[in-house]
Design goal:
rod-shaped
């Protein structure tokens, strides 16, 4: 199974204590204070590793503690600072406070970093407390504690196109036809139990990433089937490709049910640019089907396609590419951030 959620505990390093010390030297009977400052504690920093694809590493390790800073010492020697602890996460990871559900960071960029817990500051030595009227201070500061947090990590796959449809309508077959991805394909519902990504090449220097998601069923928002467990993975997609089974007796109703399930997860999903296509056209004798057999409600028409024979796929790819070209990534990014559902409230 795809590991797309994890809970971790991060603790930053404690700052080192400041030192109380006085200069001791021959022929210098009253040397002044020379206690050094403590070093700062190390921070826990999350960073994107583009080679990671899942949060599987966090199943076996959930606790991360950065080293503390060293204490200051005499002769105005400062303590060594604790090294930062860098923790790699896959691109597309959303970082949330586990207690409040607040989104702390959305690590979309390939070079994104986030300071999950900041190290404590080192305490000042007594040399810093000397004044003209207080030349022999015997006080120093203790180091401060580092931040401590419990975080929830949630991976949202980054894809250009998200495949949405009922179970067993040929989503995985279509993805395997259009890309080199090899998801499990079988003639029974819920063959796909986790998202799959595939790189689809339209023509030279024209390609996009497509995500195949487990099928939705009516009542998914109430937890039926696999529920909305994987819909968060289409949150970042720029275009939705909705597949309707050509063998369906009520294709218009199927479209309405899918739109209702998307809307039940979040209203913004129904505002994404969408293409609707009829799948498994080889089972009904093929045909280009120039006009949709139902109202599209603003969506684009993708025609009839077959993942088995490849019929209609070239035209479908051209329509998807045209829509992707008209949908700038920054537009999609802005829309995705507006009204981003509070994590956990739709589960």
């Amino acid at each position: 199974m795809l590991a797309d959620r994890a809970s971790i505990h991060v603790v930053a390093g404690r700052g080192g204590n400041g030192c109380v010390s006085f200069r001791r030297e021959k022929y210098v009977p009253k040397g002044g204070p020379d206690g050094g400052d403590g070093g700062s504690g190390g921070s826990v920093i999350l960073f994107v590793n583009p080679h990671l694809r899942t949060l599987l590493d966090f199943q076996s390790r959930t606790h991360f503690r950065a080293p503390s800073g060293a204490h200051g010492s005499g002769n105005q020697k400062f303590g060594r600072g604790g090294a930062d602890l860098r923790v790699a996460v896959p691109q597309g990871t959303v970082v949330m406070d586990e207690e409040t559900g607040e989104v702390l960071a959305d690590m979309v960029g390939p070079d994104a970093t986030f300071v999950a817990a900041r190290g404590g500051r080192g305490g000042r030595g007594n040399a810093k407390f000397a004044t003209p009227t207080h030349q022999a201070p015997r006080e120093a500061e203790p180091g401060r504690e580092g931040e401590e947090r419990r975080l929830r990590l949630e991976l949202r796959l980054i894809a250009d196109v998200g495949l949405v449809g009922f179970p067993n309508v040929g989503k995985s077959t279509l993805l395997s036809r259009l890309s080199a991805a090899r998801p499990k394909i079988a003639d029974y519902p819920f063959t796909t139990l986790e998202p799959h990504l595939g790189l689809v090449r339209v023509r030279d220097e024209q390609s996009f990433v497509m995500a195949d998601l487990p099928g939705l069923i009516e009542g998914a928002h109430q937890g039926k089937g696999l529920g909305h467990e994987f819909l968060r993975h289409v949150w970042r997609t720029r275009v939705l490709l909705v597949l309707i089974d050509s063998m369906s007796a009520e294709p218009e109703r199927d479209v309405e049910v899918l739109r209702h399930e998307l809307r039940s997860y979040h209203e913004d999903l129904t505002r994404k640019p969408t293409i609707v296509a009829m799948s498994r056209s080889d089972l009904v004798g093929g045909g280009s089907m120039p006009d949709p057999p139902f109202a599209l409600h603003g969506a684009g028409w993708g025609g009839a396609v077959s993942g088995v024979t490849g019929e209609g796929t070239k035209e479908l790819l051209d329509r998807i590419w045209t829509m992707l070209e008209s949908e700038r990534p920054e537009d999609s990014e802005t829309r995705g951030r507006d009204g981003d559902p509070v994590p956990g409230t739709k589960e």
